[in-house]
Amino acid sequence: MSPPTVAPARKPRWETGVFWLCWTISLLFLTVFYRMRRYHADRLPPSGACLVVANHQSHLDPPLVGLLSTRRPMHFVARIGLFKFKPFGRLITALNSVPIRDNESDVAAIREVLARLAQGHAVLVFPEGSRSPDGAMHEFKGGVALVLKRARCPVVPVAVEGCFDAFPRHRRFPRLLGQRVAVMAGTPIAPDDLLKDGPAAALERLRQEIDAMRRDLRARLRAASNGRVPGRVPVGVPVGGPGGD
User: Fold this and answer.
1) What is the pLDDT of residues 51-62, one digit of tens each?
2) Separation of alpha carbons 100 and 125, rounded Å
3) How many angstroms separate the CA atoms of 199 and 149, rounded?
4) For the chain, N or C: smaller number of CB within 10 Å?
5) CA distances from 243 to 46, 131, 165 (A)
6) 142 in a domain, yes or no?
7) Is the pTM of this model over 0.70?
């Protein structure tokens, strides 16, 4: 059962134009420099509220996941520090971002995410809370469990791979040569099915499903590049295992 839908506030036309302009630029950038691959984009519901849950490797993740959707804008959560520089803050506001503090229980952000879901939007969240330090997946924070319990909408697990090698958190600028990135959508999960064993079990199920897709993507990228990229073995991927060296 989806949350009750309320009419969304009408966005200024310039914001809608900026969104689709940035979507097109992201498509060109990720295709030209990173030979982007998208898998199962059709699994993203074409309309209605849905919570998109993804692993977080890099600043490249939001545009990469957003490119799964060709028919509807995706909303996403962004750390509040990104809004401090006002021109950039205006830009990511036009890109449907929701500011969130480092505190995982940021009540205002959770309420805003729930409000956008109630308006029938697709909202992207990164339950790890910050970019991976090594490309592997890490513990999911509890804040997203509150959204799962309150939203009662379909949840779409999504995996990204290659973004850590292309733009790890310790680099100021991305590597533009020799890297590949990919994104894959999983099958939407009904809220009652996901939460049948409680919020903690729901988070662990999502983490495992996303990590399985991430390893699948890693194997595909390495096969396509003759084992060259992604070049390192993240924590949690045994050497010689799927996508291992």
Assistant:
1) 999 999 999 999
2) 11
3) 7
4) N
5) 32, 21, 14
6) yes
7) yes
